[in-house]
């Protein structure tokens, strides 16, 4: 205990001298960690360094800390903690994260002691490794130093990976915790794993049918641009990646008029890419964990292939491959309420893959997906991956070793084995997802229009309503129904029933101080009308402030 006291005093002295709490109010733990203006984050970062070491001691494993504000503007920043198997910090610890981030400097020691006591941490003398990564924001280096100082003050061993994508950081954490069974915990190891598997599946025929091996890539002027350069070299022509929006550090252009979030939320072609018709284009976000595809047709009309389209492509393909292998493994798709109704219909009715719906946020999707032998999960915004149970992977590998497979079965099983290595199972990964989509399109011999033709999205709209207090809205049924305020859901149901194929839900944002209103209907006009009608009711019943609802 004496040692603990010394440790806490070091932590406190450091906090007071270097990272005093500069913001009076509290910062809230959002959907995926803390995120706000970078200038307000020094002390939060230091404290997350402290917390990461405590978490590592409890889990007796390596923990990750990623500094990024993803698709948000360049002056913002944020931090997320990565648990031992690549998951987001366990939800039960969000309360500790919130407490330690918001306590005054003089009480920091108490919170640390509370965590030590409640979690039964006995050994404060070991040096658990904490893996730290950051995106390309100009504020990231000094914030990373704050995290590292926190780790050191608490007696941990920081491993600084410098600028990496969020999914690379998750990968490093899992590699370390599986003692390299998942892969080499280095950037080279990451590229090698993905590229080797990709090239094996692609073989020597780089083109196939209507598929051509060239893609336009929008790097959002961020880490996704920087990292794809290495990938591109390794792919050596098997896939030609034409880079756009690759001004990396300090250009002020991060996510500006480009990137996956811009393309998806504005439903617009990004700046900087050639507007040649029918070219297959893709965009990643500011930390390269989201991916969307799109193209312009001959009439310059924009066509989007979002997370739902990617999810259905992958789930449908995995189902086909599984059938060819003859393996009996259960495959499921996890979506959120944002998934377009047409995608859910298509996947359940045509592809006959079971679908589960969970609340927004990767932590919820990932959690559900691991229940299946093979779980595909995607948010409509382009964040997702595939996870395989260890028993499923073993079964696939063992089957490949048996002698009683037909040539077709053998071929499909080997393909599946390689596909597992293209996928970053640790979290949604734009780069790995892109390689997977390219692999599937290549195998099917499809151009982007053939992919798009699988089903047609229902027109949809996302509106924001600003209210006094967004916590007045609470939801149930994976955010598809409002519980409070009283009467709101009845009003929504009444309005929705007037619109053919109408669907709508309202939820408080986890990252912004607003309510979100999502609507879908048979035509664009009806969808827009439905959105405004519901937004007005929300404004009235949930305490709207400022101007009545505006289209986002
Ligand atoms: C976070 C989530 C993202 C989700 C978004 C919703 C992670 C890694 N990121 O960015 O998945 O779609 O929040 O934001 O979980 P909202 O709550 O403001 O609508
Ligand atoms: Mg992101």
From TrEMBL:
Pathway: Nucleotide-sugar biosynthesis; UDP-N-acetyl-alpha-D-glucosamine biosynthesis; N-acetyl-alpha-D-glucosamine 1-phosphate from alpha-D-glucosamine 6-phosphate (route I): step 2/2. PROSITE patterns: PGM_PMM. InterPro entries: A-D-PHexomutase_a/b/a-I, A-D-PHexomutase_a/b/a-I/II/III, A-D-PHexomutase_C, A-D-PHexomutase_C_sf, A-D-PHexomutase_CS, AMG1_II, AMG1_III, PAGM. Its cofactor is Mg(2+). Residues 186-292, 306-446 form the Phosphoacetylglucosamine mutase AMG1 domain. It comes from the Eukaryota. Mg(2+) binds at residues 70, 285, 287, 289. It catalyses: N-acetyl-alpha-D-glucosamine 1-phosphate = N-acetyl-D-glucosamine 6-phosphate. One of its GO terms (biological process) is UDP-N-acetylglucosamine biosynthetic process. Catalyzes the conversion of GlcNAc-6-P into GlcNAc-1-P during the synthesis of uridine diphosphate/UDP-GlcNAc, which is a biosynthetic precursor of chitin and also supplies the amino sugars for N-linked oligosaccharides of glycoproteins. This is Phosphoacetylglucosamine mutase.
